[in-house]
Amino acid sequence: MGHPRPDPAVETQDPDGLVLVDKEVVRRVEDILACMANAVSAMKLFPSDHATVRNFVDVLAEKFEEFFKTQDRLEVGVDEHTFTYAGRAAYTDETTIKSLPFFFFKDGTRVLYFYRGLDRRELLEFLELVKAVAQKPGGDNDIVAALWESDFSNIQYYAPDEFIENRILAEKRGHPAGQGLPGLPSGQGPPELPSDLGYETLEVKVDLDKLSQGRIELTPEDRERLRWRPGAEESAPVETPVKAEDRPGPAPSPEGSGGLAPSPVATADPNLSEAEVRQLDEMIHANRILWPEEEFVKIAAEVVWLENDLTICAASLDALLDFELEQLRQGQFPAASMIIGKMRDLKSRVEPNSPGKAALLESCLERLAGPKPLEAVAAHLAEKGAADWPALLDFFSLLGPAALPLSAGFFEGRKDPEVRALILSFIERTGADDPGLIAALANDSRPALSREVIRILMNLPGQKGTAHLAAFLRFKDPGLKLEVIHALGGLRDDMSNKILMGFLNDPDEEIRIQAAMKLDPTEERSRIAHVLREASDPAFLRKSLKEKRAILSFLGRTRSAEALAFLTSALARTTLFPSARNTEMRLAAVAGLESMGTPEAREALEAGAKRRGRQVREACGEALARTAPGPAGKA
Amino acid sequence: MSEEPNARTSAERRPSGGADNKAFQKAGLALLIRFHVLEKLAKIHDPKNDAFQEQGRALFESLDRLLAEAEEPASLRIRHGALLLNGVRLKSSLGTYPIFRSVMEELRRRELDAVTFKPGLTHDELFRFMPIFARRERKEGSPHARLQAEIDAANILHVGVEKASALESPSNLNRSAARIFFLSIVHLKESFRRNQESQGINVHSTRRLMQSIYNHIVDNESFVFGLTNLKNHDEYTLNHSVNVCILATALGRRLGLNRGELVDLGIAAFFHDLGKLETPLEILNKPDKLDDGEREIMEQHPFKGAEKLVLLQGSRRLPLRAIHVAMEHHIKEDLSGYPRYFDKADVNLFSKIVKVVDFFDAITTKRVYRAKVFTRSEALSLMLEQSASEFNPIILKAFVNLMGDFPIGSLVALDTGEMAVVFDLNPDPKLALRPTVKLITDASGNKIDGDVVDLAERDPATGRFARTILGALNPAEYGVEVSDYFLAQAQ
To answer: What ipTM was assigned to the predicted interfaces of this complex?
Structure first.
């Protein structure tokens, strides 16, 4: 074969010794690197399944495939802002913050290798890794560490040890470059080290002469121990060693080792049995599925258990609190629950013998269930909008009443009925012994929850929740108040009436009317006197007819003598000139007497049926008809 | 793109994952084992031998099937410490590790990156190739060039061998490994200092360091093991911790831990004795037996170390298992030992691993309070005797397997009267008692800078082994610093 003629497409080797390389190959490499940079840029902007990204990755994969038809591998040099190929710049980006070459360079990468066999899947994984690492903060964005861990089959790198060596040595001296800051001197690698930290610190020189001078004589004991025993010859060929069980007594070990008594090491079967391999796999698997948060808490608890210095104990407990907050921010509520459970357990164990430590644990528990954890939960939900609700509410259960306000806020914000049910269950359980806590959760800004609070309070055994419905007297939402009124109206007890009485002063007329209608007639004189006073007040005349009717109907239902007297008097009152208010008052009195339904009331109605005022006379007549004894009227 | 309408690309023909990948792994492993076995048989048997014929047929069938399915050459390649078959990394396990190691060493010895079997390979070509490949390389000339010439001369058209890309010289590799070893001691010392001054540990640098240690173990395991014979450099705890880190990482690798786990294990082992910062030096270095009070203080170092790591954990991103290891590395398999838990009833896997290597390194290190320093072989024997309650038996067994009958760094007496230091284990388990050794004295006991010899080599004239180990010697009794012989390889 003769020497090939110079090919104009091929670069000639220059005095600098640049590698002879086909221009077309160089062009392809440049193309690949540019495409790769574009793919990475696209991935930073769009998700991996976006059409733009898919297109870039497809094109890049095709370019690699084409390249590998003629080349085994692509070796890319990494300079500070440049990728090189065969000693030549192949891609440059000097914008440090986004430069792909710099991204690799900063962590010590000096060569990247892409091998034939690289497929689209692996390429995409690589690009996604680059994207993920680039988005990490601070020291976590070490691409070399990430590449190492990813262990790609067909993408390798070279990052010389000198990089980490210089970094560690620089850290030792507090050198700023040791912090992994960018901006290394261009083309020079890591900065100069202080002179007293030379390479001497990393090497121990051995006196080679010492190794070849002098003598070593076997001790008499070793001579005796190692003396050759007659007849101990090579006993087996290479491929068929004597097994331990086949050796008679303290026989020579295989391969003619000179008649030594076999050591436990020599006779031990070096191979694991199938059962042992299975056990090992199980151990490794079990280790992989360990819940790291749980393990941390368990062992931190053990540390606290063992430590007798309370100051140091306190520091460990602070660390646990920090850990709890971190877990809550990440939505890891089971971990937070576990911490509290473990601390409670520990406290119960130390209490008898270490009151000081128990006090520390008590204080820790208070903080673990305090405002900061709740803020962390709120922050997590605000950010993520979703949570592991069963786990969160288990955590709330451990916090107890302190978590009620936060849970109330969550209820209102969630429309999912299952989530709401979980929250309500928590609220009911937690407030069962102190209904005031439940009542305190209701307010005008939580109408949905407030309705549930009404229900819960009403359903508490022994009606111990009823009194707390008084809180609704302050509410503005009429719907809620009406619900309370409706609920109370069915109870017909003293407490309910008290609260309903309160609603008689509500600024909303409808509320007042409904309350009056739901009031239970009672013989308690103070309540009747109160209403009578209200009804006698000139301001009462300004109320609407409906309201007047409602209140005077209540008076009628009391069937008291005072009420009869008042209603009779009111019915009889006439004015010189027609007065709408007075007429309304008289009509309301009619309603009251009708409600009363006693013979005395009928007498008053009959008298009223003959008095001035046609409207009043008609009303009296109708009332009499309705209350007439027998089938036509109410009895 | 291919011009054939239905042709798949090489990437498409590769297993895509899941069951496909499992099947490929199984087939690939079978092929590798057959290659290995046939290569071993080719060393000692004529191609007409029945065993050779049978294995040869089996290998040919595997290759034939792979060539038919893949529609491309079948390439067994070594790359960055891994074996790949047609671009797919083959996974080793505890049981197959010796085979992987053996094949990789055979490829390295011949300066090869890959052996490729091409479509059209014949039975006859394979049977002619294997003896050529198995032949011990000649010392003169490049092993690859020699091999290629023999393949060409034999007119084997469908087997190719690829020369390795520029290999780092052994002395450079050794130097790099040694530097990382000492860098680890520097870094640990600095980490301890920072901890004492209530500063954080730089986990990122530590993580990179662990990765580098792993890389060196993969590239140069025997030399790195040799470095662990270095004891008491700077402070005992520092040197010891680095040794434990290396041995734990190597053992973890052998057990099948993945990379992420190995880095975590390395970090955990690195800091396992952090608690000794709280132990007074006069107790650590006391030459006599500790009294009860001193023992009690000494036995606090595990939980003190764990405590320090708990305090660091929140903001320092240390692996959580580092805390386990610090706490548990003196807890025995039966949960005795120290410290005693109040609640926890198990010991982490990483703790069990570190416990084994920690014990091993400790009892093979001269300490003022220890009358006897065990040799590495004695240490392993002692540990095997105690295995039931002290160590996890499976992990211990794996460690013994890793270390070998004569662990690297053992000082041995040979039947020739020479003394030697074990430099490398024999990858063939059947030749476990025939490691590679460096001769350090002649037959008369004069110290020499001797050759590194393979005790599995036979005298061509007689067919007998040239040298055989009589037994291990205690370097401390002979004033031999075994580590010097390794460090000398790095100068």
So the answer is: 0.89
